[in-house]
Amino acid sequence: MHPDLPLSVGSLQEFQLRRPEASFTGWFYSLGVEAYELLKPFASDILHPDEMRYFTPLPAERRRISFLLGRFAAKRALRPCLEGVEFADINLVPGIFKNPVVCCPMREPWQVSITHSDAIVSAIAFPMVHPMALDVESINAEKVPAMATQIQDGERAEAIRCGLDIPSASTLLWTAKEALSKTLHTGLTCSFTLFKVHDLARINEAELKGLYTNFTQYKFHAWIRHGCVLTMALPRRTEIIFESGRPHLPAPIQDAGASGNSIIKP
Ligand SMILES: CC(C)(COP(=O)(O)OP(=O)(O)OC[C@H]1O[C@@H](n2cnc3c(N)ncnc32)[C@H](O)[C@@H]1OP(=O)(O)O)[C@@H](O)C(=O)NCCC(=O)NCCS
Q1: What is the pLDDT of residues 231-257, one digit of tens each?
Q2: N or C, fewer C-beta in 10 Å, the chain?
Q3: Is the pLDDT of residue 266 over 70?
Q4: Is any atom of ligand 1 closer than 6 Å to the C-beta of 181?
Q5: Tell me, what's the pLDDT at 86?
Q6: How far is the centre of ligand 1, averaged over its atoms, from the C-alpha of 182 (Å)?
Q7: Residues 41 and 89 reside in one and the same domain
Q8: Is there a domain that residue 91 lies in?
Q9: Domain for residue 254, yes or no?
């Protein structure tokens, strides 16, 4: 690995996946999109040669940022699980439905899930025996009409009963559906109405949870902070535990130093 590669640009957190019969460890990594300028000179140290062949000719800056930072976040999350494997030796190959497949020497099979918003890029690494995924979205009132096409009235009403305003409620429901679609690897190739949610409940000021009507074996946890919703879909009987209580989401640059969000109505 290049000695100057700035490994400390984001935040790495371990989490526990506790089930009645077994426990697993996973890793969460998150960083702000402004890290792109710092990481860009190290692209060939971060990306596998196959990933470099995709990245180098990319014309759109937005995709260059999401691809490089997404790969970096996923490899940072994988690093504690893979002893002595260099970033550039890990190839995150897109599956036929675009799900990232970890290709590198591994003692046990690990999987990653990647998500990007306009401000944040996050990834988790977790054992393949324990399916899960994540999604992050900025809360933006302009996106509400598009999200509304995939949200049923009852779902929105439940989210509003939990004290969310309409943009936050819509974003939370959308991310819950997208996170399950990634867990199942379908993505948007099937109707999001299948991923109907119910039993939404607030755990604390910034964390909510809920269940899926048609996929009763899964649940989701969502954290709202710094104008973003981060949601993880995971097996229903798994308790997810972060030592610090929640995944760390970086504050957008203009908000750095702000204490947190205020998008949940009092
Ligand atoms: C999954 C999906 C809903 C994510 O939407 P998005 O707005 O790009 O959202 P995010 O930024 O949160 O997530 C993007 C990441 O999700 C992952 N992803 C994409 N499709 C995925 C799938 N089917 N299953 C699991 N993860 C998937 C990828 O890692 C991707 O990042 P990358 O391209 O940099 O590797 C959307 O990409 C999708 O529907 N993909 C599958 C459909 C598709 O493209 N099919 C083409 C072949 S039929």
Answers
A1: 999 999 999 999 999 999 988 765 444
A2: C
A3: no
A4: yes
A5: 94
A6: 7
A7: yes
A8: yes
A9: yes
CATH classification of the domain holding 221: 3.90.470.20
Taking the centre of ligand 1 as the mean of its atom positions, its distance from the CA of residue 174, in whole angstroms, is: 14
User: Residue 19 C-alpha to ligand 1 middle, in angstroms?
Assistant: 28
Mention every residue, 6+ apart, whose C-beta is less than 8 A from residue 108.
127, 128
Taking the CA atoms of residue 49, residue 52, residue 57 and residue 59 in that order, the dihedral angle to the nearest 10 degrees is: 160
- Report the nearest-CA residue for atom 27 of ligand 1: 99
67 lines ligand 1 (CB under 6 A): yes
Q: Work out which ligand 1 atom sits closest to the CA atom of 186.
A: 23
Q: Is 189 in the pocket of ligand 1 (CB under 6 A)?
A: yes
SS3 state of residue 89: helix
- Three-state DSSP at 82 gives coil
33 located within any domain: yes
Whole-angstrom CA distances from 115 to 87, 135, 205 are 19, 5, 23
Distance 134 CA to ligand 1 centre (A): 11
> Each residue of 154-190: pLDDT tens digit?
999 999 999 999 999 999 999 999 999 999 999 989 8
Written as one letter, the residue type at 249 is L
Residues 51 and 109 in one domain: yes
Do 110 and 135 sit in the same domain of this protein? Answer: no
What is the domain count for the chain?
Answer: 2
Q: Give the Cα-Cα-Cα angle 88, 63, 38 (nearest 5 degrees).
A: 55
One domain, residues 137 and 238: yes
Domain boundaries, position 245: 131-266
Q: Which of 7-11, 242-246, 260-264 has the lowest mean pLDDT?
A: 260-264
User: Could you tell me if 100 and 141 lie in one domain?
Assistant: no
Share of the chain above pLDDT 90, in %: 84
